[in-house]
Amino acid sequence: MERLGSAERLFEASLTELEGLALPAHSAQFCFEGKAREAAENELARVIEAGGEILTPADEAYPARLREIYDPPAVLWVRGSVELLSKPGIAVVGTRHPSPYGTGMAEMLSRDLAAPGVVILSGMARGVDTAAQRCA
Q1: Is 114 inside a domain boundary?
Q2: How many separate domains does the chain show?
Q3: Is 110 a domain residue?
Q4: Percent of the chain at pLDDT above 70?
Q5: pLDDT tens-place string over residues 35-83
Q6: Which residues contact 5 (CB under 8 A, 6 or more apart)?
Q7: How many angstroms separate the CA atoms of 57 and 85, rounded?
Q8: Does 12 fall in a domain?
Q9: Is the separation of the CB atoms in 64 and 96 below 8 Å?
Q10: Pairing with 126, which of 39, 94, 97, 136 sits 20 to 30 Å away (CA)?
Q11: Is 57 exposed, middle or buried (0-12, 13-18, 19+ CB in 10 A)?
Q12: What is the torsional sign of CA 89, 136, 92, 51?
């Protein structure tokens, strides 16, 4: 996206331009045929339907701390208060199949950290992530 100047250009670029970006051939073809735009629009509809929103580094609400890392995420799927992303937080992530001990620890740590106001972040996967969010 940086080399094209915008995400929108990805959907408008010629196959030659896309291949010139060193995209794998199947990825360039996916974009050129319009399938990437369709997939992006479907994903956006799903996020909105779930009560979420999508942030990119171009958005003012995108967390400043993420802008400072080497390879910041190009897209964040957010559900809840976007303002919380600028507060002190910790990511709690782990296996999708935790032991009872692992689930209990994720719950306890998240509850104890959330009580004084630490934001608990996760990728919302099943297992440890879910336990952390439930107790936070």
Answers
A1: no
A2: 1
A3: no
A4: 99
A5: 999 998 999 999 999 999 999 888 998 988 888 989 888 888 888 888 8
A6: none
A7: 13
A8: yes
A9: no
A10: 39
A11: middle
A12: negative
Helix, coil or strand: residue 127: coil
Q: Is residue 13 part of a domain?
A: yes
CB count in 10 Å sphere of residue 94 = 17
Tens-place pLDDT, residues 9-26: 888 888 888 888 888 889
Q: What percentage of the chain carries pLDDT values higher than 90?
A: 29
Range of the domain at 20: 1-49
Indicate the helix (H) or strand (E) that contains 120: strand 119-121
Across the chain, mean pLDDT equals 88
**Single pTM value for the model:** 0.65
Q: How far is the C-alpha of 33 from the C-alpha of 18, rounded, in Å? A: 11
